[in-house]
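Appendix C reproduces, verbatim, an entry submitted by the partner laboratory led by Prof. M.T., so that reviewers can inspect both the input and the predicted structure.
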Amino acid sequence: MDPDLFFTIGIVLAVFSVPSIMSAFSEGRAPRVAAFTVIAAGAMVVWAIQTKPGGYAFTDIPDVFVRVVAKYLT
């Protein structure tokens, strides 16, 4: 499996779960699905960081996103 793809999917899932968490808290209910999504996203990111030799630098994140989008959409 491609660690860059897992890293990108994990980051996107984590970002998309934030509105779900905020919605659940504002409506007074537990964010169960959002919490599961955050855990899955975190696991994907951690796996990608551990699998890729050298890991990821903070400045590499935009390049990783562009590479993944270019690779899988073209």
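The longest helix spans residues 3-26. Additional entries are available on request from the coordinating office.
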